[in-house]
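so my prof wants the structure for this chain in the tokens format not the other one, which i didnt know existed until like an hour ago. anyway here's the sequence
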Amino acid sequence: MAAELMRGQNHPLSRNRIEIRISADVPVVAGATLADENGRVRGADRVAHPGAPALPGIEVSRQAAAEHRLAVDLGTVSEAVHRVSVLIALPTTPGGPLRFGAVAAPRAAVVGLDGAEVAGYTLTGLDAESAVVALEFYRRQGAWKIRAVGQGYAEGLTALFTDQGLPEAAELAGGIEEAVARGMARSVPTGTTQTDRSRRTAASVAGPDLPGTAPAADSAYDARTSPAASGTPGAVQGSTSPGGPVDYTHPKRRQASPPTAPAAPAPAEGPASPVAGDAVGWSMDERLYNQVWGMFEDLARSTAAYRSAVDFAESRMEKELDQVLSDPRNRLGATGDAARDAARARQAQLADQARAALDRDLAQLTAESEVVEPALPPAYARWDNPVWHGYRVPTEPPMAVRLGDLHLPESAPLRIPMLVRLPLERGLWIDSGLVPTADGAFPDAGELRHLALQTAVALAARLLAAHPAGEFGVQVIDPAGAGAGASALAPLMGAGVLTAPPATGAAGVVEALGRLTERVDLVQMAVRGGAADALPPGLDTSRQLLIVNDFPHGFDDRAVTQLRYLADEGPDVGVHLLLVADREDAVAYGPLLDPLWRSLMRLTPVPDDHLADPWVGHAWTYEPCLVPAGSHVLQQVLTQVAIARTKRM
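here's what i got, hopefully its the right format
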């Protein structure tokens, strides 16, 4: 359970790699100072700020924003550093607040890499202060601890830096203000409000809030700032003038590095060009991972704003038409026709303006996708990405793997990679049942089963390629031998990357499931008993992926029970399930298998809109990552995996 700290209270810190999340009602500047054992900051090179956002062990945002995510790795901080102070300040922007007492209390939270909050501190009691030290990390007996500080300074950053012993405090404070001004001129046009994502995230739980009254017909309208959009969970705010540039920032992504020379205000056509890897993270893989999921969140929220705006325009037209028809004198004749035409024209105008705002967002996301997609590492890339031609077996696994692509009907050409963290926390289910295509037709059942197994093989090959040699194995249960007969398993069998030949027949099912069940039992007992060295010699402790084709053919009640056990307990000890099945084939088991289906992530071999996001509940269309027809990339990658495994043995 997270600790909610009071001013002056400290709390132990059991991990070194953390994220600091700062949320406020207005854009603030975030930074950090590295001090010695006496609390003194020796120079400007010990301060992380928007003009110099990265220091060993800490990285801050490059611009002012209502929400910040600071990456911190205390394990890589210099041994000479005994205190890391996290500071926030109000930027000196025209019309902006000059003191924290004029806005809601900001909050700083310390979050682990798993997303769990460790401790939080709401900075209450501020008044005339314009800069404040929020949190402090300090060494104590070889370990790090957190302290809620809340020390504010009415004179701003200059007084804060002076209090920490920095000789060039005024010069550094001025440099930070210049860096922030350049960033805001580049990405936040005049009249644009920064998004308060913390409040939007909280609002996403409540659901849409329809406006009580419609705005005036001639009022400025934008899909992101309309009453309907602002009430939508996760809606993104933007320009308050129609047709103007839209600020499109995400808390996990930074803006491009500031130029060496003073930059002119951003042109009207939009923000700066996107940059691949322009997100917070310790490595390029982490940056790209955060950037991809930032694009996913932005597309979800922008589409929600558009849909809400269109719904608002429709409801407004219906209301106006009801008012017209409520008077019998206006139902017929020129007066009624004119009123109806005017209502429809206003609805069309609002819908067009909403679409224009969405198109601006889609254009920016498309530009970002065009630079991000070619820069993705193999585990994140599609099979047609040239990065696979330079593939080498990695020395350590990536943080995630790509399972397919996602898109929405309003932005069909734009594909967002579907990345899932490794190791997999739940099994996968490739649904080989009949799924209607976009035109409502059903594909051939035999062809769909073959395509489902191809999808499973492509995912297995990607997981093999993402892990170091010998640290990930693949086993196959194919009771009827349908996979080998249809040649779908040929890439795995031909490359020799399977741990054992595919298990066939009822006896093969019993032997394979018994072997893996025993492995799970042994590893669980060793882990829980703290006796990992007591495992039997020769036991393969590498992660294993079990592909089960044509389930439940060849499975009796005992085998089904073992499969459910592997699905529930296997991921924690390195055994993962990849099921290829049609749920209708298992209907005879009734509700017995319902927990199994719920425990697996359902994927489809053809595009299908069955996935929903956690912010606004869009139905996303999923498309699997299949190898292009005629490509030999899969064989080349699996051959390298097999060679590396042989050398390791």
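also thought this was worth mentioning. The first helix runs from residue 157 to 163.
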